[in-house]
Amino acid sequence: MSFRHRYFSSILLALAFLTPVITTGCGSPRYRVYDPYHNDYHRWDNHETVYYHQWVVDNHREDRDFRRLNRDEQKEYWSWRHSHHDDHDHDYDHDRH
User: Fold this and answer.
1) Are 33 and 51 in contact (CB under 8 A)?
2) CB contact at 8 A, 74 and 66
3) Best label site of 25, 30, 32, 41, fewest CB within 10 Å?
């Protein structure tokens, strides 16, 4: 094999491995949020974001990042959220971090 062919092949192989990392890293943030008022976890992903935006509209709130809400506002959200419960949005494995 010539030097150019090996170099080109190495670049293609590196791109093949990096493409999934680059494309999945650009999605919406996904993280777990602990709800201390109901002692459970929620996966904060697109699904939870829909609920959050519904809460913002229903309660005439300013649309800002959930993590920037004060404790009382977060408590209000979790109370509202649990009254609009969906079994698929909880992360019941409390031991994982």
Assistant:
1) no
2) yes
3) 25
- CB burial of residue 38 (10 Å; 0-12, 13-18, 19+): middle
What six digits make up the tokens of 11? 């670049």
The answer to whether the CB of 44 falls within 8 A of the CB of 33 is yes
d(CA 65, CA 74): 11
Evaluate whether 80 touches 55 at the Cβ level (below 8 Å): yes
- Measure Cα distances from 35 to 4, 41, 81, 83 in Å: 56, 6, 10, 14
C-alpha closest to that of 83 among 63, 54, 57 = 54
Parallel, antiparallel or unpaired: strands 90-91 and 31-35:
unpaired
Q: pTM above 0.90? A: no
Handedness of CA 92, 43, 78, 48 (dihedral sign): negative
